[in-house]
Design a protein that fits this description.
Keywords: Antimicrobial, Bacteriolytic enzyme, Glycosidase, Hydrolase. Residues 11-23 have a biased composition (Low complexity). This protein has 24 helices and 43 strands. By secondary structure, the protein is α+β, with helices and mostly antiparallel strands. The chain is globular.
Length: 899
């Protein structure tokens, strides 16, 4: 019998989801082997090519296949934390085997397999039409489902206490605190304290249905503490009792409780936040480790309230799946972990896709994150020879990196300098030039150089690109430093692979803007995706074709099966696949004199050819961008499988056993009608999960400030007539120049280097360096005596600001544990640059997704020396606006874009 859904005391049918306007975050199902985020979908296509089965959209058995198979047999991924959710969504159904079912074939061999799964609903909502107001129409949203099939059984977790367990399992009420949080540093200064979990007041309802945001920090439970919970709200749980450990202050070294009562509802400090009497507070559930068996196991569970999970959330460990080839005479033991991952949507997706593509044409340019390289586009293949020497007329003293030189990439822009013997000054040895970065440290006067940036669109050349290619911005930004360059105009170049007319790999440089034959498209344009209907393929016909394809059929059967082969090969799916496979490059050594290889009577689309195509980026894209309409293997009538039985010959008995497994794996009818909006029919549209993720995945969490962010801080910090000259801000500051370049803790040597890097002459740079280490009245006196020593332009002040910002970038990276968009990162760097207090509380709120409270806290810090400043009030408002809306403003007025 197919699995039955576990009944719940609350109604299992949730109300239909409402459209959500905030974009989804996306993650690949596993990080790479170094536990870093994968940026290129080709990493996964390469792994899929190394699998024995589970290809998309056609399996090794010749049947249409709506998902992909993954494990770590290829050693490319970190899988110890299990499979991750690919996008923000809601868990609407799941199953955990108590122990893996065993299958005994008629020849006595045994196999084990997992029937466990997790089903997650995601809602794609189109960006609003320009100038539209009000609620978006319902047809601008579409539910899709991601399925994670063959997850680990409960016995697997029992056998290894260290295995990461999903925090969202139902009916688990006992947890152990992990080490995700730390006690906050004291407001007056100091370090963070013990590892563990912060305790909070009651969470507030979030903007997304079923989501909640943090309250206020009231306590802290050290790592290893154990609790029993009494209530769950989204990702938050209420403490009923503490069974191991005791609560302490959320602040390192802070007071907690009242006299000898370590409770969060009493405090000696009048200003401290407390919970209502007898309320032990709330914990963030992802920071906890369940120590009790989930209830139930062995049944399909439909949560009464779908559990919201973020992209990257662990959904469970990968389970076992043994086919007949891995069956053994003895009771089976774990030997092959296997994940089946797929994404599907109902037939309404077709209309949504059409509307999405129409909408994409009207969306802002900055929302176009996919670089499309069209057929016929030519790239810059060869770098022109150097056209000059680094320093032609004088002995080179040194080569200074220019302020406008890119920080990384194959080439660096330098200003050659020589020592003028008549004046003992360093003089420019000609105009700035470009040299290879790897030669910077050993540069001499004769080092080859380019008078202009080495890459130019005038140098595009054959071979032309022969296959449409789509490169997500996240993939381009993830390329190695040697494959990325930035020219004088701050425009990016990337060196990418493409296919020539013969199907062979070529490489060339493509420019970010104005490159003929390329354009940026929105993910909502779905470039390269194509719907293919495979419902006309009969499984028995596909099986007959596969018997011929694999050489199992004899000559008589080949003739008998010819109509089946014709029918399958003539289907839209096989026509599409053959069109792709035919573009594979010929094998090495194949030439005009080579003897043609005899074609398989069942056609070109073989498992071997599919694997070869997946190793070829442009062909892997074509295969993965098929949107396959076909009946799911997890539902539908068993008659299509029964129809294969007469073709099984000597394997019939084992096939009848295999049919039992197919029936037991089907879960569709157990959830149909019980999940709001779930497709009634098992005939659905299957979307490749890796291609889908690549289409929508952003560049990942920002780790460095943008040019817009630098200028934003400059506008907040700069003061005309003051910051452009040497000045003393007062207090404990030293001599300062520009928007916060304080020399009190800097060496004279570093000051000289920094001043010269922004164009200050040698004599002035050395004179300024005498301010090193000065503070207080000594700093003030120095500024008065040297007021006219330097007068920086706004651009030079911005260049100098780049010297001081990295320390604050590191502050943000260290404190924030969630992904940040570019404007969010920029806003926090600005706040860190001049916080006035509250850094620990603001970052804690952000880490617990309580953005509203974090922004409210930022707005509090508007005083200096106990005095409120109007400039700080406006600055905090600008920082909040930047974080929440992405608008770069100065005192409410828009700032011009810098990149």
């Amino acid at each position: 019998m197919p699995p039955q859904a576990h009944p719940h005391p609350e109604p299992a049918s949730a109300s239909a989801p409402t459209p959500e306007t905030s974009p989804l975050t996306w993650r690949y199902p596993f990080p790479d082997r170094d536990n870093k985020e994968v940026t290129s979908p080709q990493t996964f296509y390469q792994a899929l090519a190394g699998m024995e089965d589970g290809f998309f959209p056609l399996g090794v058995n010749g049947f249409p296949h709506g998902g992909i198979h993954l494990n770590n047999s290829v050693g490319m991924f970190e899988t110890k934390d299990g499979v991750r959710c690919i996008a923000d969504g809601y868990i609407v159904a799941y199953k955990i085997d108590d122990a893996y079912p065993h299958l005994q074939f008629k020849d006595g061999k045994w196999a084990m397999y997992s029937t466990g799964f997790v089903l997650v609903r995601h809602t794609l909502t189109l960006p609003p039409a320009p100038n539209s107001t009000g609620v978006q129409p319902a047809d601008e949203s579409q539910d899709i489902y991601s399925l994670y099939m063959h997850t680990a059984d409960w016995a697997n977790y029992l056998a290894d206490e260290k295995l990461k367990r999903p925090w969202w399992w139902l009916d688990v009420n006992a947890f152990r605190v992990q080490n995700r949080d730390h006690q906050m540093a004291p407001p007056e200064g100091g370090t963070t304290g013990a590892a563990g979990a912060l305790v909070w007041t009651e969470p507030k309802a979030g903007k997304k249905a079923g989501s909640f945001t943090a309250g206020e920090q009231v306590g802290f439970l050290p790592e290893g503490s154990e609790v029993i919970i009494s209530e769950t709200r989204g990702q938050w749980v209420r403490i009923k009792t503490i069974t191991a450990g005791h609560m302490i202050s959320p602040v390192n070294g802070g007071y907690f409780g009242w006299e000898d009562q370590n409770v969060p509802w009493k405090s000696e400090a009048d200003s401290a936040k407390v919970t209502p009497k007898d309320d032990w507070g709330w914990l963030y559930k992802p920071n906890l480790h369940g120590i009790k068996e989930p209830d139930p196991v062995g049944l399909v569970v439909i949560p009464p309230k779908p559990a919201f999970v973020k992209a990257g959330t662990s959904l469970g460990q990968i389970g076992e799946y043994h086919d007949y080839e891995r069956a053994t005479p003895l009771p089976p033991a774990p030997k092959r972990q296997l994940l089946h991952l797929e994404v599907f949507a109902d037939d309404g997706f077709s209309a949504f896709l059409d509307k999405s593509r129409a909408r994409s044409a009207h969306l802002p340019v900055d929302q176009r994150t996919l670089l499309v390289i069209n057929v016929g586009a030519k790239l810059v293949k060869d770098i022109p020879p150097a056209d000059c020497k680094l320093c032609d007329w004088h002995p080179l003293y040194r080569a200074d990196v220019t302020p406008d030189s890119p920080a990384s990439g194959p080439w660096v822009k330098v200003q050659p300098r020589y020592n003028d013997s008549t004046t003992a000054l360093l003089m420019p040895g000609g105009p700035p030039v470009w040299i290879e970065r790897e030669k910077l440290a050993t540069a001499t006067a004769t080092t080859p150089a380019w008078s202009q940036f080495p890459l130019s669109l005038q140098k595009v050349a054959d071979p032309a690109n022969a296959f449409m290619l789509v490169y997500p911005r996240s993939q381009l930004d993830g390329l190695s430093a040697r494959d990325k360059a930035v020219d004088d105009g701050k425009t990016q170049w990337w060196r990418v692979k493409f296919g020539n007319a013969d199907g062979h790999t070529a490489t060339g440089w493509v420019r970010e803007r104005d490159h003929p034959g390329t354009q940026w498209q929105s993910p909502w344009a779905w470039p390269g995706f194509e719907r293919v209907d495979a419902t006309g393929i009969d499984l028995a016909d596909a099986f007959r074709r596969n018997l011929v394809l694999t050489g199992v059929a004899d000559w008589k059967e080949q003739k008998e099966f010819a109509p089946s082969i014709t029918a399958v090969n003539g289907s839209p799916l096989l026509q599409k696949l053959e069109q792709t496979i035919s573009k594979l490059a010929p094998p090495p050594g194949y030439g005009a004199g080579s003897k043609p290889k005899q074609e398989n009577p069942a056609g070109k689309v073989t498992a071997t050819a599919m694997q070869a195509a997946m190793r070829t980026p442009w062909l892997a894209q074509a295969l993965s961008h098929v949107i396959l309409r076909y009946e799911s293997e997890w539902g539908g009538d068993m008659s299509r499988w029964d129809a294969i039985t007469p073709l099984m010959r000597n394997a019939k008995d084992n096939w009848l056993v295999e049919l039992q497994r197919i029936r037991k794996l089907q879960w569709w009818n157990a959830v149909k009608g019980k999940i709001a909006g779930f497709p009634a029919s098992a005939t659905v549209l299957h979307i490749h999960p890796i291609a889908l993720t690549a289409n929508f995945m952003s560049a990942g969490s920002a780790k460095s400030i943008s040019e817009d962010g630098i200028f934003f801080i400059f506008k907040q910090e700069a003061l005309a007539g003051v910051t452009n000259r040497l000045h003393w801000p007062g207090g404990n500051s030293g001599v300062t120049l520009g928007a916060g370049y304080d020399m009190k803790a800097r060496s004279a040597e570093s000051i000289v280097s920094d001043m010269k890097s922004i164009g200050v002459n040698d004599a002035a740079a050395h004179a300024i360096s005498a301010a090193a280490g000065l503070s207080g009245h000594a700093a003030l006196d120095f500024c008065k005596k040297n007021l006219g020593l330097v007068n920086l332009s706004d651009e030079k002040q911005v260049d100098l600001l780049r010297k001081t910002v990295p320390a604050y970038e590191k502050m943000v990276i260290k404190a924030i544990k969630i992904d940040l968009l570019k404007h969010e990162f920029d806003a926090l760097v600005s706040y860190a640059y001049n916080p006035g207090g509250g850094w620990a509380s603001v970052t804690n709120f952000i880490n617990h997704i309580n953005i509203e409270q974090a922004m409210n806290n930022i707005k509090k810090y508007t005083t200096s020396g106990g005095v409120a400043f109007d400039g700080l009030v406006k600055r905090r408002a600008d920082e909040v606006t930047l974080y929440t809306t992405g608008r770069y403003e100065f005192h409410g007025d828009p700032l011009p874009p810098r990149q």
